[in-house]
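Supplementary Methods. Inverse-folding protocol.

Structures were first reduced to a discrete structure-token string of length 118. This string, shown here, constituted the complete conditioning input.
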């Protein structure tokens, strides 16, 4: 997608603080981190979201998760959160599939999964 910022990052048309890249995936630090360590792991191929993934592409999901695990190890994270926001109602702002790796809090994560409030 020509106007997708994560496609531009994956083609090096926009800068990023890259932590890992291979032929399928790219990982870079979030520009507005929500945790002391906040890395985004994306497929280089444009896919809008988890909701748009085809069965033939499903192995990409394990590749994203496995890459996140390797980055967590290299960042010496003992615990972390992995998050996909899906669609506007799910909090997704950038419409290029990405996995958030969040961690590095002193003494553990500030919140468990918060209770539902109406
Ligand atoms: P989401 O709400 O799941 O779509 O998350 C998108 C994330 O992308 C946000 O945490 C943004 O801070 C991050 N982001 C947006 N633009 C950039 C960029 N150019 N480089 C790194 N991270 C970015
Ligand atoms: Zn894209």
């Amino acid at each position: 997608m020509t106007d997708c910022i994560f496609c531009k990052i994956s083609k090096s048309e926009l800068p990023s603080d890259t932590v890992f890249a291979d032929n399928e995936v790219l990982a870079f630090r979030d520009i507005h981190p929500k945790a002391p360590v906040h890395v985004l792991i994306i497929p280089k191929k444009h896919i809008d979201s988890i909701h748009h993934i085809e069965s033939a592409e499903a192995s990409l999901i394990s590749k994203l998760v496995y890459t996140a695990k390797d980055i967590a190890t290299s960042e010496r994270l003992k615990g972390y959160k992995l998050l996909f926001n899906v669609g506007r109602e799910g909090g997704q702002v950038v419409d290029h599939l990405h996995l958030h790796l969040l961690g590095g809090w002193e003494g553990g994560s500030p919140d468990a999964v918060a209770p539902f409030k109406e």
